[in-house]
Write a structure and sequence with these properties.
nine-stranded parallel β-sheet, 445 residues, globular, alpha/beta
Amino acid sequence: MQSKSEKLQKIAPVPPMGWNSYDFYNTMVNEEQIRANADFMAKNLRSFGWKYVVVDIQWADPNAGTLNPHTQYVPFTKLCLDEFSRQIPAPNRFPSSRGGLGFKPLADYIHSLNLKFGIHIMRGIPRIAAQNHSAIKGPALTADKIADPFSISRWNGDMYGVDASKPGAQEYYDSLFELYAEWGVDFVKVDDICNTNMYPQNPYSAQKEIELIANAIDHSGRNMVLSLSPGPAVIEKAWHLRSFANMWRITDDFWDDWELLKAMFERCEVWHKNVGAGSWPDCDMIPLCNLGWGFGSLRKTHFSRQEERTMFTLWCIFRSPLMLGTELTSLDKESLALITNVEVLNVNKNGHNPEPVMRDENQAVWVSYGNGCPARGQDIFIALFNLSSKDADVFISLSEIKGISKDKTYSVRDLWEQKDLFPLQGNAELNFPVKSHGAALLRLR
């Protein structure tokens, strides 16, 4: 029998790569838009490793977005539920779900493109089901018997938490993931669970629900990536996250703001020792090119091209999951080139033991290794970040990097520019020009 760790490694041996609907479509994505973005991924991105297509929040709400820009989530909305208190797709937005088919036709279509299908859920059970004493599948119980009315989200009013100590709690989650397995779901992003920020004195208050969900995935018989949101994740609970989840957010929602990007360096420093096969600290979605945040208003990303490169370089060398937050069908050629650089993506997929070397107000340096632990004779990836407001050289003494042999002459390759550079002696100081707010990614061999 496989251990929990072995199962996690099998499901996500490398950081998952895909697209999530939220950053562009907010709560309002529909089936036509999902299919269009999936078509684009299959044609232009799949061969580079991008494969997950994830429908984010409020897919069961037929009225999602109707109160924009005043309110993001419709208070007391009437979610679409089946006879067992389980959310099902709103048919006005996902017409192929009619007739009780749920997300299966959409998942089948995405699978036909050789891609993977994912959904977002909020932890817990719909409040409307608890208030109506609606049935749950399995035990002769109703939703109110397992709902915890004192466990709620600070920012979305749809759900009550599930009291894991109550009879029927595991059976309820089992019924959810049984349904998702029938639909063909490959990825589930569970929200209001990694950090239950309604309760700052107990931010990991949903620990038992994480266990219920992980058990339910096992019971479903289908491999599904388990992604936990939002952050910041609690570092003291890293052992628990590694035991039950494939991904967990190390930040609250990340957007296209330079100060937020600079703050990610510290978050990655806190979490880098927990990066490994099957379990991936998550820097959140990648907001580039066109975005839709602002309750439906469309805009260009606030990141400069150099800041986008810094973001993508940090995500890759840290080995974060890579989830695109944009409208794929309107990507410009520069953004497409950024996310299809095979040499940079290889660092995310095959680099090991990422670690910071140094950081101050003006620069940061990270490394990772081609074959795991630092050892002579293997590829060494070095990321150089210019955090200052002026173009400048980023410098580091190679003696500060593990695995460097002072007697060896290394060949240096610029992975972003995909060209070979100068030879470099292992006892040298590396000085490399980097544009303001930009990054370079080098391979030493």
